[in-house]
Write a structure and sequence with these properties.
Layout lengths: L11 H4 L5 E2 L9 E2 L1 H11 L14 H12 L3 H6 L7 H23 L4
Antiparallel strand pairs: 1-2
Helix pairs in contact: 2-5
């Protein structure tokens, strides 16, 4: 009798989803961001998403606040940053902040940070 299972073994690398910008085949000019993939990577492996690329000068101050809190691994300060999602730039920043919180909590759960 063959005792070993023929099922594929679980590997964390197989769960790693490309967290890069993807372009849909219908419109090559528009970029799409894979938020679900980044959220999955953040939760499972504690991977921080790449920082948002395009921001107008008025919103760079808020982005800098978020990036500083992420760099300091400060979940409480990240959650205290108020982000009103009234346009697409702020929605991107809100999603980025939320995924960073998930990643930092996962790192804390895994034991990478205190």
């Amino acid at each position: 009798m063959y005792s070993m299972s023929r099922a594929p073994r679980f590997q964390a690398e197989s769960l790693l989803v490309q967290a890069t910008r993807t372009t849909p085949p219908s419109d090559p000019k528009k970029e799409r961001i894979d938020w679900d993939g980044m959220r999955r990577n953040a939760y499972m492996l504690g991977i921080l998403p790449p920082e948002p690329a395009m921001f107008d000068p008025r919103r760079r101050k808020r982005l800098a606040m978020v990036l500083k809190a992420v760099k300091d691994n400060d979940i409480k300060r990240l959650m205290e940053i108020e982000i009103k999602e009234y346009n697409s730039s702020m929605k991107v920043l809100g999603r980025y902040r939320d995924i960073c919180v998930i990643a930092l909590q996962a790192r804390r759960r895994i034991g990478d940070i205190e």
